[in-house]
Design a protein that fits this description.
homodimer, 210 residues, alpha/beta, 8 helices
């Protein structure tokens, strides 16, 4: 599956029944997300595995790569297309050695040096932020749009903006050569996730962001 | 490194500085543990990785295999000798597929059917218990010594007893063909972990358990 980070949806199952969670994921896929990350922090390995398998059935149906947050073991166990690694996860170069050249490895970067390091260690794309404060990661540090622009100039891999982004505020990214946007709440908590995805995509296209 | 489960020490870093934790591990290795498991539940992947690397330096120095609890990603990242998988972790057969034939895979079993399943899926040894109530896993269910005996008879792989075991109570295991004993607190919380290990080993040998 080709890596297209233009509309990258990161899930958060908090507060949803599994049925509703999967329903929302499928709605987002129908709405046009191009990449999907499963991120779970409080599940046992077995629970994470079982949920990941169900999500993978959906993403494969829509031809969208599934990225597993943090856990290479889960990604390998279900044959996911890739992993996303933050600064508290395995180092990129070690993950690349374990996963081989074909799996997608994404990294989080907040600064140009972090971005360069992740790229040099073998990351395939970067998530950069938080651009706005976010309810998903309350302790996260903000990254300015100037730094985002500098990172886009510094590395040849796709750079995505992340953090509190939604249809009404992504105009702040106009003119910055990002590859795409990452969202959690804008889709996850939308009344109609399919419509929210489609509208977000339309707005990003209208602004020439993607 | 050869698998010898006769005196299997499972660590618990709770309440110790890293320095003291590593000091106690080395003392246990000097005292004669034959297998060592690192079990961490509240660390980030990066923290788990870094601690595992330090523990691995020690275990290699004493020629003792290092088993990582639950996390195949950590085990692969540091080249540990194996993993231990409970009922909330990855299924044994899946782990075997990922790790290949040479890594040690241990499993937890509380009943004969669980033991048979783990063996058939490729487990190299079993931990069976809890024989006594334990402070490490407060919600665990007890396993009778009769069941332990039945499991020893049912599978051809090494079976270890676990759960609240110490020098003063392992006589309850007399006559059961276990391969070894697993302990956490008896060594981890001992005033002198090296001496505690040596005395536990001497007592187990005296009883003909190992």
């Amino acid at each position: 599956m080709k890596l297209d980070t233009s509309l990258y949806f990161i899930t958060d199952s908090t507060g949803f029944s599994e049925e509703e969670f999967l329903r929302r994921i499928e709605a987002a896929l129908r709405g046009g997300v191009t990449l999907l990350q499963l991120r779970e922090k409080d599940k046992t390995t077995r629970e994470y595995l079982e949920l990941a398998r169900k999500v993978h059935v959906l993403t494969k149906r829509y031809g969208v790569p599934l990225i597993i947050d943090d856990r290479l073991d889960i990604a390998m166990a279900i044959g996911a297309e890739g992993v996303h690694l933050g600064q508290s996860d395995l180092p990129i170069d070690l993950a690349r050695k374990i996963l081989g050249p074909d799996k997608i490895i994404g990294a989080t970067a907040k600064t140009v040096p972090q971005a360069l390091e992740a790229y040099q260690q073998g990351a395939d794309y970067l998530g950069v932020g938080a651009i706005y404060p976010t309810t998903t990661k309350v302790k996260t540090v903000l990254t300015s749009t100037d730094t985002l622009r500098d990172i886009c100039a510094a590395v040849p891999i796709p750079v995505n903006a992340i953090g509190g982004l939604n249809r009404d505020n992504i105009d702040v990214l106009s003119g910055i050569p990002i590859a795409g946007i990452c969202v959690v709440s804008a889709i996850m908590k939308a009344e109609d996730p399919q419509q929210a995805t489609a509208e977000l995509k339309a707005r990003a296209q209208e602004l020439g962001l993607i």
